[in-house]
Amino acid sequence: MKKLLTLVVTLAFAAGAVGFAAAQTPTPAPIEKAQEKKAEKPADMKRMPAKNANGAVKATSADSVVVAGKEKNKEVEWTFAVDPNTSIRRDGKSITPAGLKPGDSVHVRYMDMGGKAVAQSITVKGGGMVKKEAKTEKK
């Protein structure tokens, strides 16, 4: 009888310990957070084709650049959003949007994200208006 009582107590203890361990397993919250982050990005963001624009800088701010150029033989004006991931380069060196000057000839690689043109990279082409003006002033 003593053995039976010891066996019952041992089984009860083991069942309680298993239940306690099961209650301590981590919740799936980290997986949900990862899924939320994926949901924030458009599902086909990798499939969205990058577009290109060429023109002259009209205006700049800390978070946007306005470029005037031609598209399908018509004069157009684009406003590109600029974020910390946007690469802006002049003469092979990184610059900020403030480094762009009105009249600079630029090539912009951008993507449409939620109806907004977001610049991926902006490259100042050689021989922009600012450089030409500087050359004529030296003469």
Give the SSE layout.
Blueprint: H1 2-23, H2 29-40, E1 51-60, E2 64-71, E3 74-81, E4 87-90, E5 93-94, E6 105-113, E7 116-124, H3 129-138
Parallel strand pairs: 4-7
Antiparallel strand pairs: 1-2, 1-6, 2-3, 4-5, 6-7
What does this 3D model show about the protein?
The structure is a single chain. The chain is an alpha+beta fold and 139 residues long. The protein has a domain at 49-138: Copper binding periplasmic protein CusF (OB fold (Dihydrolipoamide Acetyltransferase, E2P)), CATH 2.40.50.320. Helices cover 32% and strands 36% of the residues. Strands 3-2-1-6-7-4-5 form a 7-stranded mixed β-sheet, with no helix packed on it. A hairpin with a 2-residue loop joins β6 (105-113) and β7 (116-124). The longest helix is centred in the N-terminal third of the chain and has 22 residues, at 2-23.
Q: Which stretches of 5+ consecutive residues score pLDDT under 50? A: 128-139
Secondary structure tally, helices: 3
Strand tally is 7
Question: Structural class of the helices, strands and pairings?
Answer: alpha+beta
Radius of gyration: 30 Å
Spatial strand sequence of the major β-sheet? 3-2-1-6-7-4-5
Biggest sheet architecture: 7 strands, mixed
Core attributes:
disordered C terminus; single chain; OB fold (Dihydrolipoamide Acetyltransferase, E2P); rod-shaped; 139 residues; seven-stranded mixed beta sheet; alpha+beta; 3 helices
